[in-house]
Amino acid sequence: QLAPDDAWRCPHCKVPQQGTVKLSLWTLPDILIIHLKRFRQVAEQRHKLTTLVRFPLRGLDMAPHVAQRGQPGGQLLGRWAPWQPPLRLPPACPRQHLYDLYAVCNHHGSMQGGHYTAFCCNALDGRWYSYDDSRVEGVREAEVSTRSAYILFYQRRRSAASGTGEPQIAAHRAPTLPRGTAHTCPLHTCAHRAAAPSLRVCTPS
């Protein structure tokens, strides 16, 4: 809701109103990135916020945040100009509004400096892992939501094609090299011998 000193001037009654600002989305992306506000401005100083934000690992429903022009005027905070044709989108599948978390970027420290870590869900075994520089270890799902969570990465659920309701995190394929060529993973101290194109997973040593 708008503050009294930031009230909205109604074009009909010409009186400032403490209206409520609502933002809606026309379409949803395949990858949804949510950036949590982790600072508070006090005078000329910024203070980091460590409020615990509970976020779902599966089934984040974005349907309440999607608007369509075909809705009645009472559902929207404004009316379309008569020369604008209404945009009538086909009914969306309910699963197109569902997202599953696959990674979390964490920030540890203060506004002046700190350290970044990450929680990532492995696309092959469905388990969560903690990444802290070269250190990788498994974590429980209950440990993913912390006060250090900073950026959340969600992927649209693609269960409509598979016929299941389970989250499906897309697996990324490593670049294909000619047969018999060795390459080194830049993020891990390991080397692979390329053969037929296949899915490769780098395991830290």
Labels describing this entry:
205 residues; mainly beta; Cathepsin B, Chain A; 7-stranded antiparallel β-sheet; two-stranded antiparallel sheet; 1 helix; disordered C terminus; ubiquitinyl hydrolase 1
What features would you describe in this structure?
- Residues 72-90, 159-165 and 172-205 have low confidence and may be disordered.
- The strands form four sheets. Strands 3, 6, 7, 8, 9, 10 and 11 form a seven-stranded antiparallel beta sheet that branches.
- The protein has a domain at 29-67 and 92-161: Cysteine proteinases (Cathepsin B, Chain A, Alpha-Beta Complex), CATH 3.90.70.10.
- A hairpin with a 6-residue loop joins strand 1 (8-9) and strand 2 (16-17).
- The protein is mostly beta strands and 205 residues long.
- The chain is built from one helix and 13 strands.
- It is 2% helix and 31% strand.
- The chain has one helix at residues 159-162; strands at residues 8-9, 16-17, 31-35, 39-42, 45-48, 60-61, 98-109, 114-121, 128-132, 135-139, 149-156, 182-184, 191-193.
- GO terms for molecular function: cysteine-type deubiquitinase activity.
- Keywords: Hydrolase.
- It is an enzyme of class 3 (hydrolase).
Write the SSE topology:
Layout (H helix, E strand, L loop, with lengths): L7 E2 L6 E2 L13 E5 L3 E4 L2 E4 L11 E2 L36 E12 L4 E8 L6 E5 L2 E5 L9 E8 L2 H4 L19 E3 L6 E3 L12
Antiparallel strand pairs: 1-2, 3-11, 4-5, 6-7, 7-8, 7-11, 8-9, 9-10, 12-13
